[in-house]
Design brief:
This protein is an alpha+beta fold. The protein has 1 helix and 7 strands, in the order αβββββββ.
Length: about 110
Protein backbone atom coordinates (compact mmCIF):
# COMPACT_ATOMS: atom_id res chain seq x y z
CA UNK A 1 0.00 0.00 0.00
CA UNK A 2 1.26 3.49 -0.82
CA UNK A 3 2.38 5.70 2.08
CA UNK A 4 -0.12 8.41 1.07
CA UNK A 5 -2.96 5.88 1.35
CA UNK A 6 -1.84 4.85 4.84
CA UNK A 7 -1.91 8.51 5.92
CA UNK A 8 -5.36 9.02 4.42
CA UNK A 9 -6.69 5.95 6.25
CA UNK A 10 -5.24 7.26 9.53
CA UNK A 11 -6.94 10.62 8.96
CA UNK A 12 -10.32 9.04 8.20
CA UNK A 13 -10.12 6.81 11.28
CA UNK A 14 -9.16 9.86 13.36
CA UNK A 15 -12.21 11.75 12.07
CA UNK A 16 -14.50 8.89 13.11
CA UNK A 17 -12.80 8.62 16.51
CA UNK A 18 -13.14 12.37 17.14
CA UNK A 19 -16.80 12.33 16.05
CA UNK A 20 -17.41 9.51 18.55
CA UNK A 21 -15.87 11.79 21.23
CA UNK A 22 -18.77 14.20 20.58
CA UNK A 23 -16.77 16.79 18.64
CA UNK A 24 -17.70 18.59 15.44
CA UNK A 25 -15.06 17.59 12.87
CA UNK A 26 -13.96 19.56 9.82
CA UNK A 27 -11.49 17.93 7.43
CA UNK A 28 -8.98 19.91 5.41
CA UNK A 29 -9.82 19.61 1.72
CA UNK A 30 -6.27 20.50 0.70
CA UNK A 31 -4.04 17.41 0.51
CA UNK A 32 -1.01 19.10 2.09
CA UNK A 33 -0.35 21.46 4.96
CA UNK A 34 0.21 21.35 8.70
CA UNK A 35 -3.46 20.87 9.67
CA UNK A 36 -5.55 17.84 8.70
CA UNK A 37 -8.58 18.38 10.94
CA UNK A 38 -10.20 21.18 12.92
CA UNK A 39 -12.51 20.15 15.75
CA UNK A 40 -15.03 22.16 17.70
CA UNK A 41 -16.25 21.25 21.16
CA UNK A 42 -19.65 22.93 21.20
CA UNK A 43 -20.12 22.60 24.97
CA UNK A 44 -16.75 24.20 25.81
CA UNK A 45 -16.64 26.43 22.70
CA UNK A 46 -13.07 25.28 21.94
CA UNK A 47 -11.53 24.87 18.51
CA UNK A 48 -8.56 22.54 18.10
CA UNK A 49 -6.23 22.27 15.09
CA UNK A 50 -5.01 18.70 14.60
CA UNK A 51 -2.34 17.09 12.47
CA UNK A 52 -2.89 13.34 12.20
CA UNK A 53 0.20 11.14 12.22
CA UNK A 54 0.65 7.43 11.63
CA UNK A 55 2.41 5.66 14.50
CA UNK A 56 4.80 2.74 14.20
CA UNK A 57 5.81 0.70 17.24
CA UNK A 58 9.39 -0.37 17.77
CA UNK A 59 10.34 -2.77 20.51
CA UNK A 60 13.49 -1.91 22.39
CA UNK A 61 16.07 -4.46 23.54
CA UNK A 62 14.74 -4.19 27.11
CA UNK A 63 11.25 -5.15 25.88
CA UNK A 64 9.65 -1.71 26.20
CA UNK A 65 7.88 0.00 23.30
CA UNK A 66 8.89 3.12 21.45
CA UNK A 67 6.24 4.97 19.44
CA UNK A 68 7.47 6.61 16.24
CA UNK A 69 5.18 9.36 14.91
CA UNK A 70 5.56 9.89 11.15
CA UNK A 71 7.37 13.16 10.57
CA UNK A 72 7.89 13.78 14.30
CA UNK A 73 10.12 10.96 15.45
CA UNK A 74 10.08 9.19 18.80
CA UNK A 75 7.51 10.02 21.45
CA UNK A 76 9.65 11.56 24.16
CA UNK A 77 7.91 14.17 26.32
CA UNK A 78 11.26 15.11 27.91
CA UNK A 79 12.78 16.51 24.71
CA UNK A 80 11.57 19.30 22.44
CA UNK A 81 10.86 18.13 18.92
CA UNK A 82 11.92 20.57 16.19
CA UNK A 83 9.07 19.45 13.90
CA UNK A 84 6.30 20.37 16.37
CA UNK A 85 4.41 23.56 15.53
CA UNK A 86 2.95 25.56 18.42
CA UNK A 87 -0.85 25.69 18.40
CA UNK A 88 -1.27 22.37 16.62
CA UNK A 89 -2.18 19.14 18.40
CA UNK A 90 -0.75 15.90 17.06
CA UNK A 91 -2.95 12.83 17.10
CA UNK A 92 -1.32 9.55 16.15
CA UNK A 93 -3.08 6.44 14.92
CA UNK A 94 -1.39 3.10 15.51
CA UNK A 95 -2.78 0.43 13.20
CA UNK A 96 -0.93 -2.34 15.05
CA UNK A 97 -2.86 -1.57 18.26
CA UNK A 98 -5.90 0.04 16.56
CA UNK A 99 -5.49 2.92 19.02
CA UNK A 100 -4.97 6.68 19.13
CA UNK A 101 -2.28 8.52 21.07
CA UNK A 102 -1.81 12.27 21.52
CA UNK A 103 1.74 13.49 21.02
CA UNK A 104 2.20 15.17 24.39
CA UNK A 105 4.39 18.02 23.18
CA UNK A 106 1.52 19.56 21.29
CA UNK A 107 -0.12 22.68 22.63
CA UNK A 108 -3.86 22.18 22.75
CA UNK A 109 -4.85 25.82 22.89
CA UNK A 110 -7.22 27.31 20.31
Amino acid sequence: MKIAHIGTISELKAQIWLLNQGLEVFANIKPSGPIDIVTWDQEKNIFQKIDVKTIRIYKKVDGTKSYMFSGLGNFDPNSKNKNVIDGISYLGYCEEEDAFLWFEESIRAP
